[in-house]
Design goal:
Elements: H1 2-22, H2 25-43, H3 48-64, H4 66-71, H5 79-82, H6 87-123, H7 136-165, H8 173-197
């Protein structure tokens, strides 16, 4: 288990650094969008390559930062139900979700996206729009993104197994506690506001 936890730690470190680095592409996407809008309004000019570059940058952030989102426990879940359950039940829900849903999902998308990319690459597929970007680099993003998400899913499975075996403390416990504190504070503020409105 300790060897697997070292592998998990290496995957986590990579996902954290890679996610933080690529999150800056949001700024690049905003800059490209702004420049394109200004040039179109001032000079009545536009470029399909700039429009497509915005989509590619957004896709990179969405796909390549998803492992970081999973690592930080910021993925979508029904928090109202999840927070009311004991930590052990939460661990089982996470383990079942990762093993039976997330891993198969990433494997299926990997299996289908590799030929999708290779066909585009062999044909040197180009944009249907005049002056657009080549399509094969964009089509590689699904394949790479799913490979990275699969790695992080394996890391999460290792950590869940270690938590359930009592080898390590639950890394999500502090995050969950912070959510609970925030919810309690929000409830207290709502009660204070309601009390002030009473005559």
């Amino acid at each position: 288990m300790h060897a697997l936890l070292r592998v998990s730690g290496a995957i986590d470190a990579f996902s954290e650094r890679f996610g933080k680095l690529l999150s800056w592409l949001v700024v690049a996407a905003v800059a490209v969008s702004s420049i394109n809008a200004v040039v179109r309004k001032l000079f009545d000019m536009s470029s399909n390559s700039f429009l497509e570059l915005q989509w590619v940058l957004f896709s990179i952030v969405f796909l390549f930062c998803s492992p970081w989102t999973l690592l930080r426990n910021e993925h979508i879940r029904i928090d109202v139900i999840n927070h009311s359950l004991p930590l052990r039940v939460r661990s089982w829900i996470d383990m079942i979700g990762h093993v039976f849903f997330l891993v198969p999902f990433t494997l299926i998308l990997l299996w289908t996206s590799v030929p999708f990319f290779l066909t585009s690459w062999r044909l040197n597929e180009q944009s249907f729009s005049a002056g657009g970007l080549p399509q094969w680099p964009a089509k590689s993003l699904i394949m790479i993104g799913m490979a990275l998400l699969l790695l992080q899913a394996i890391s999460e499975i290792i950590k869940r197994a270690a938590v359930m075996a009592g080898t390590i403390p639950d890394p999500n416990a502090a995050v969950l506690s912070a959510h609970e504190v925030a919810e309690a504070e929000a409830a207290r503020l709502a009660a204070d506001i309601a009390a002030e409105r009473k005559p």
